[in-house]
Predict the 3D structure of the following.
Amino acid sequence: MFAEKGRKMYKKVRAYIKAWQMLESKDKVIAGVSGGADSICLLFILLKLKAEIGFGLLAVHVHHGLRGKTADRDEDYVREVCCREGVELLVYHEDVKAYAREHALTVEEAGREVRRACFLEAVSKQGGSCIALAHHMNDNAETVLWNLCRGTGLRGMGGISPKNGVWIRPLLCLERAEIESYLEKRGISYCTDETNLEDHYTRNRLRNRVIPYLEEKVNEKAVVHIAECAAKLKIIGEYLEAETARYMEQCRREGKDGGIVILKDKYGQVPGALKDEVILSLICEAAGRRKDVGDVHVKAVQQLMERQVGRRISLPYGLEAARSYEGICLRRQDAEEKVAENPVFQMRIFEKNVESITFSQKNYTKWFDYDIITNTVKIRHREPGDYIVIDKEGRTQKLKQYFINAKIPREERDGIWLAADGSEIMWIAGYRQSQAYQVTDKTKRILEISIYGGEVDGGDGKGVDSRRGGREEDRGDWKADQ
């Protein structure tokens, strides 16, 4: 009976691989093998498929340098299994903590980037054609729930892709319980990463608390149903992506300076369901990347479209959006202009995690409590009615009065950049940060705003002064909970 269940599971995976056209006999598969149950199951499934289909197989293990002797144990076990099964193994030793510090990432983020780089290097150097990862149905459900809780569109609700470029996930059709049962019945041991049992990270809390509760108290097939819904949403998302691309071409033209012009009249004809996606896709195209481009930037561009000709805003990666007679011009900022008038403001939102966050030491990077922000954050110059909270008791001061008290010359006040939540000023760049948005022990999500520009372009943390010669009165205030 147990053998029959094992055969059914193997057939299930084989059918899934065939449906997604993941593997052919000519392939050389690079398999990520950590030593945990999922990756060990993947390895043994691939070995059986290899005997049947005839592709090449190379295992890759990444030692993150994080868990001391237990990580060494995992590596030893993977070496033992690969040697016993006759599988070629490539091991990478990486310092993930150092990478996280160097790139201002959480340890989780750094681990993902390091693993990805190792797998891609193995593909390149070893002549691989695809990278097999051991994500399963529970991972998919966790991802969908996480994306929903953080805020997402259809792309995020579609969950993990079974196949994406060189990346394939043959076990995405299986629940975690099926994988563990398969290994148990075959007498195959595996390693347990003790950090997966801790609740420091959001994904772990979803895995250890939320999903078990859903399966026990709501529906025992909750994971299956979430995964099925995600698959349907992914199909819908792919259709909408195609429609987005079609409307993008209709409402854009190439700018004379190499930028992209969004034609307001044509954009007005885009269906409401696609308007945000069209703007997002055009910003990402102009930037050359998608990371850190989000709703805040989309809304800012849409608001700019309703303002007078000549107004401009800064976007991530050195872009600016300028209001023109036709609509919006997305272009790279001129270096000299960027220093004098339009420093680059970049924003990102992330969860506060005291275990893994390295606080920025840059004078021109400020952190704010994201969850108390009530409006779309705008980077702008002063407007009538602006005010700032000046102390922990919540006392406010009109921005005009602050400028007078700070002895800022009248001719410089209109050129000072502000981060604003409606009429409430979160940050007078180069001067002070509002006390109302400070990061505290109650903060769950952080909005980071950074200014870059000038000769150093933010490289040494100096950034660019909003008035070229200003000071930072409240430097370090955002570190109240450090």
Observations:
- The first helix runs from residue 2 to 19.
- The chain has a mean pLDDT of 83.
- The chain has 16 helices and 20 strands.
- The first strand starts at residue 28 and ends at 32.
